[in-house]
Write a structure and sequence with these properties.
This protein has helices spanning about 10-20, 40-50, 60-70, 85-90, 95-115, 145-165, 200-205, 235-250, 270-280, 305-310, 315-330; strands at about 1-5, 25-30, 55, 75-80, 120-125, 170-175, 180, 215, 230, 230-235, 255-260, 265, 285-290, 295-300. It is α/β, with parallel strands linked by helices and about 325 residues long. The structure holds nicotinamide-adenine-dinucleotide and uridine-5'-diphosphate.
Length: about 325
């Protein structure tokens, strides 16, 4: 199949590209490199043995998108492009609405123009807001608590409206829980700019000696050890979930939401312990106050993905930590 990945040079897109190339799909990566590097292209090629087509352009250019979709006879779009930092979204909300919501409008216009009606969207479990029950299934009420989350929610609503207006559309919103880990080669992985906000990249930098210690945000939550619990999912499992969704979509018109999570929650302290063991490094930490906006626990009910897509996560926490460590420690600055 000819597929275009907006944001395909980023953390998740690059892993999905590898899996799709290895399965024989023709892959076009469309990215403005605002949060990724050109070196990733060669690394994807090195792993997959095939070089994907790369177009450096912005999704807010409907003209460039239309040309790309036509020129490569694209059949399905996987839409990863967007800005994703929660804190930054509260400081620059307009940038987030312009990039995420405006960029998606532009993509949908280009798809309408070229008659492409098949879309896989990078959704997020953030659209569930404060959990009213656990585990979170797709029927849980939706509510965003920050501008980033609201862009994700607005996009989902827009996609549902679009699908209601035209039965030919086939859309799946994959609601990711907490993607972590890296390709087993250590060639591609998550490379946040500046100090990481998310737990796993932060722990990895502490283990590498680049950061002094982890601040554990709160140890008085109603969880077994008092620290926050999340559903961490290996990025390669996530990538395989996209491939399953791509095949499934062919026979499923409408707009669907499907969780991609493991169903298993781990606490911050469990993550610290697992990472220290995988890296054979110390991960010093101190208990700090709760971070504003954090929930105590968040994990998926992954049954719909299994029932519909025939997919479930295969990789466990040791693999998530070991692959992250391999990626981080193989960077020149990561050798500590
Ligand atoms: P990422 O920042 O690594 O990748 C996004 C890519 O999109 C980058 O390569 C960036 O250069 C590109 N991009 C951004 N704006 C663009 C634009 N206007 N035009 C063209 N390219 C643009 O992020 P990621 O972690 O790979 O996330 C991919 C998607 O998954 C995002 O939509 C994100 O919101 C969603 N998501 C991520 C997580 C997570 O924890 N990583 C969780 C839930 C959902
Ligand atoms: N966390 C932490 N210290 C950090 C970063 C995160 O204790 O430096 C905690 C955070 O409070 C949450 C968990 O780790 O309980 C996961 O946080 P992350 O930002 O990775 O994901 P999200 O909160 O968006 O699910």
């Amino acid at each position: 199949m000819n597929v275009l990945l907006t944001g395909g040079m980023g953390y998740i897109g690059s892993h999905v590209a590898v899996v799709l190339l290895q399965a024989g799909h023709h892959v076009v990566l469309y990215d403005n490199l605002c949060n990724s590097e050109i070196e990733t292209l060669a690394r994807i090629e090195q792993i997959a043995g095939v070089r994907p087509t790369f177009i450096q352009a912005d999704i807010r250019s409907a003209k460039a998108l239309t040309d790309a979709l036509k020129h490569h006879a694209i059949e399905t779009v996987l839409h990863f492009a967007g800005l994703k930092a929660v804190g930054e979204s509260a400081i620059n909300p307009v940038d987030y609405y312009a990039n995420n919501v405006g960029g998606t409008v532009s993509l949908l216009e280009a798809m309408r123009e070229t008659g492409i009606r098949s879309l896989v969207f990078s959704g997020s479990a953030t659209v569930y807001g404060e959990p009213q029950y656990l585990p979170l299934d797709e029927a849980h009420p939706l509510c965003a608590t920050n501008p980033y989350g609201r862009t994700k929610l607005h996009i989902e609503e827009m996609l549902r409206d679009l699908s209601a207006s035209d039965p030919l559309w086939r859309i799946v919103c994959l609601r990711y829980f907490n993607p972590v880990g890296a390709h087993e080669s250590g060639l591609i992985g998550e490379k946040p700019v500046g100090t990481p906000n998310n737990l796993m990249p932060y722990i990895a930098r502490v283990a590498a000696g680049e950061l002094k210690e982890l601040s554990v945000f709160g140890n008085d939550y109603p969880t077994p050890d008092g620290t926050g619990v999340r559903d961490y999912i290996h990025v390669m499992d996530l990538a395989e979930g996209h491939m399953a969704a791509l095949g499934w979509l062919t026979g499923h018109p409408g707009c669907h939401a499907i969780n991609l999570g493991t169903g298993q929650g781990y606490s911050v302290l469990e993550m610290v312990k697992a990472f220290a063991s995988a890296s054979e490094r110390d991960v010093p930490y101190q208990i700090a106050p709760r971070r504003a906006g954090d929930v105590a626990a968040c994990y998926a009910n992954p049954e719909k993905a299994l029932k519909e897509l025939g997919w479930q996560a295969q990789r466990g926490l040791p693999d998530m930590c070991a692959s992250t460590w391999k990626f981080v420690s193989s960077r020149p600055e990561g050798r500590g």
